[in-house]
Amino acid sequence: MADAPVLQMRHIRKTFPGVVALDDVDFDLRRGEVHILLGENGAGKSTLMKILSGAYQKSAGQIVLDGQDIEIRNPKHAQTLGISTIYQEFNLIPHLSAGENIFLGREPRRLGLIDQRAIFQEATRALNGLGLNLDPHKLIKELKVAEQQMIEVAKALSLDARILIMDEPTAALTEHEIKALFATIRSLRDKGVSIVYISHRMEELFEIGDRVTVLRDGRTVGTYDVREMSKSELIRLMVNRELTELFPKERAELGPEVLRVEGLNTQGGLKDISFSLRKGEVLGIAGLLGAGRTELARAIFGLDKIASGTISINGSPQRIGSPRAAINSGIGFLTEDRKSQGLVLPLSVKENLCLASVDKFSRWGLMNAQEEQQAADRYVKDLRIKTPSLNQKVVYLSGGNQQKVVLSKWLCCKSEVFIFDEPTRGVDVGAKAEIYQLMNRLTASGVAIIMISSEMLEVLGMSDRILVMRGGRIRGEFSAEEATQERVLQCALGE
Q1: Domain boundaries in the chain?
Q2: Do the domains at 5-239 and 257-493 have one common CATH topology?
Q3: Is residue 133 within 8 Å of 180, Cβ to Cβ?
Q4: Contact (Cβ atoms closer than 8 angstroms) between residue 286 and residue 469
Q5: Model pTM score
Q6: Of 6, 96, 252, 412, which has the fewest beta carbons less than 10 angstroms from its beta carbon?
Q7: What is the DSSP pairing of strand 5-16 with strand 19-30?
Q8: Residues in a beta bridge with 29
Q9: Per-position DSSP letters for 247-315, written without gaps between them
Q10: What is the CA radius of gyration of the chain?
Q11: How confident is the model at residue 88 (pLDDT cuts 50, 70, 90)?
């Protein structure tokens, strides 16, 4: 690996209205390396990469590519310079096919017309190169989150980029898909492609990274050789404090049963689901992609129609045919995809936070602005949401702070049962610890939590009891004392 950097970003500054997102940040990238960009949510990682990809314009600073000063005007210009990006949040058109999304804006042509056959042939080749057996004719809206993520990967790699930016590319991928992606990354690195890799999964850093640059509060902390750093050292550099426990679970005193599901079946594939949940309990739901975990959450919250079975709250059967009915029954749902399902991005922090409890702040159809303001202010302070004001549009917040806004929305509703679907997806280690502590506070107050997570250690570390799903059914149940990574995985695989 050559020492001379192919890219240098010097003294980069970026400001938004009321916010300094980056302040004097330095970053460089060598040929044929995987350079990890590390930091808490809001540290400035994605902002820095959006400047490099042309999505944002820097307020000050210098970008040098192959020894030449450049001004990256827009994303198309960045692509012509050989810079390609896989964003944390998808940039796909739901009503187009996978193949059409991969080659959108640069479709192969024949006799002046778009060559559909060539599109799908090339798309198949790109997907096969990632080890995926996925039909490129399938519409994006019909794909699962993990499949959509792999389409983003295929799209970026098809550009033959010399600099590839990956922003949380494995957040929704299975272990098999992650291994395939890492094999591709290593192959690209061996060919001289330079990769900037953003991830909150610390184990990935040591598996795939060469160097790591740590950002904190919009500033560069330093750049280090991955082989010379430990996990605890990097966490301390990120958060400027010691995090002695990754999963600070506090056992709450369990109360009476608050939720009972009996004989639940749906047309979406759930079969004879039965379980109960007690006040103060965290019930972990484990299983592989497609096991039915999210489908279970959606059915309980009234998003998917129940074919048969009953749902009872505090011993009383409920007719939950819609999300509003679920909310009125005391159920809150933190969805897997916060941007498309959990937030209204053009609205403010305050408006999003109070969205599910409008009835609480209204009298005869009129909102009580003072009560709404007081409630929003309280939850922003309690959850330490980083925002310049309650009126800031939530689209401008970092991923971790957006997640806290969604959490606050259900806290404001005074929900008795929380369903957390991938609660720490795309969230840094510091914000994760805050979410875990919030879970402890909720259970201590008698709230019951169903936690769905693809991170096995998270399920093991934060659950009082674990259900394992496979093929739309519950295949096993483990107490916290009984559960091990091997036993849960064996049950999920059917071994």
Answers
A1: 5-239, 257-493
A2: yes
A3: no
A4: yes
A5: 0.60
A6: 96
A7: antiparallel
A8: 7
A9: S---PPPP-SEEEEEEEEEETTS--SEEEEEETT-EEEEE--TTSSHHHHHHHHTTSS-EEEEEEEETT
A10: 23
A11: low
